[in-house]
Amino acid sequence: MGTCQTRLKKYAAMACAIVALVLAFPATTHAVPVFGQVFKLRQPDGSTVPAKVWGDEFYRVVESLDGYTLVRDPVTTEFCYASISSDGSELISTGLSASKPLAGSPPFSTHIRIKNASSDSKIKEAHARFSAGVAARRSALGFAQGTKFAAPSKGNIKGICIMIDFSDQASTIPQDAVDLFCNMPGYRGYNNNGSIRDYFYDVSAGKLTYTNYVTSVYYRAKNPKTYYDDPNVDLGLRSRELTLEALNWLDAEGFNFSEYDADGDGLIDAVNCYYAGVRGADGLWPHSWTVDFVGDGVSTFKYEIVDMGEALTIGTFCHENGHMICDFPDLYDYGPESSGIGDFCLMAGGNYGDDGRNPVQPCAYLKEFAGWETVTNLSVPTVDLTFIAGSNMCYKFVRPGKPNEYFLVENRNKTGRDAALPDAGLAVWHIDTNGSNDYEQMTSSWHYLVSLEQAD
């Protein structure tokens, strides 16, 4: 990590960041975004279809590699080529399987999309349902709505990682490989840059040591994988069902859950469901939500669920644990207008750094939120400031007359944890605590929660 010294003659110079992009969040619904990455999506017969995916678990667009839009058939649950409804509000399955090549000229075009108003409505509906689930769980636990529900972001925290497989998707990765992936210092398995423990230890500057108890065997789910990934069932319901199954199984095995509440608040700090095979496209899309379980005097609040894929990668696992153990928000645009701050932060698209093997660091705003950052407050124009990349230090300047807005300035270099950054230099983060992931207007009154100011 290098050192960057610069002179900030005026705080107007904060708008001249070398790095550029934008981002945002709502705090109760936690997702993982993709921006055209290629995944092998599983068909009901166990075969896979390579496809590009955009979006998160709340709304996704799926295309074949040659650009034809795909959709899950509601009857067969197979990925099929899509047409569009007459009013442009819905994608409709043609019944033509994406596993088979198209013959001749198909009666539908490439890159089909529904109307923005329709996709926005679907996204808001899904978020509202997830938010209602979080509020209900908070109420059931007797905590006020403003209470932070997360493990301590400092100290030694131990979570639970339950390995899961299915009758129609048996495990292929051994238990000891998952244990090393979660916990081994200096881990390099599957070409990852460290373990889950290493990532959080590094980005917290040694303030957080996060490890996991990994089950000694896989929990075999009660139903086939296709059951939990049914496109006709509301998002999250079947994954929550699977998580509760796994927790009850672990309880029956005599597991002591009380050892996994580091701060003694009565809540289990982390429940990771790590399932065999490639990710599901519906109910098993990676996400973090709530589950109702009590064991040994402690309760669950959050869980996260992630696929193992064909090879273990730390990126998405770290993103979802950012939600679960740090209470980090998502920082990407929920609509199709933008990718938010994109690849400049773990909680946007940065979890895919080096194909998920070396996710980038959380941005300065999240490190400040977690208590990992040394923040120097500035109230007047200042010169000869020193910025050390990778040191968890930044400068803060509150926008005059706007107490809800401030700027954080940090140095980011394309080395180590940040090797996958798209660019490097001074990052000027504009924080608007009244902002939203949906405020892509970027006017004087409408901002994302977190934006990365552009040098142009």
* Helix proportion: 10-25%
Would you tell me the overall average pLDDT?
87
**What's the tally of helices?**
7
Please provide the ordered H/E string of secondary-structure elements.
Answer: EEEEEEEEHEHHEEHHEEEEEHHEEEEEE
Strands, count: 22
Major sheet strand order: 2-22-21-20-19-17
The 3D shape can be described as globular
Low-confidence segments, ≥5 residues, pLDDT <50?
Answer: 1-29
Structural class: alpha+beta
Taken as a percent bin, the fraction of beta residues is 25-35%
N-to-C span:
26 Å
Q: Largest beta sheet, briefly?
A: 6 strands, mixed
Give me the Rg, rounded.
Answer: 22 Å
Per-chain topology:
Elements: E1 3-8, E2 21-23, E3 34-42, E4 48-56, E5 59-64, E6 69-72, E7 79-84, E8 91-97, H1 116-141, E9 155-165, H2 175-183, H3 196-203, E10 208-214, E11 219-220, H4 225-228, H5 237-252, E12 271-275, E13 287-290, E14 294-295, E15 298-299, E16 302-307, H6 315-326, H7 364-370, E17 374-378, E18 382-388, E19 393-398, E20 405-412, E21 425-432, E22 450-452
Parallel strand pairs: 9-10, 9-11, 9-12, 12-16, 17-19
Antiparallel strand pairs: 1-18, 2-22, 3-4, 4-5, 5-6, 6-7, 7-8, 13-16, 14-15, 19-20, 20-21, 21-22
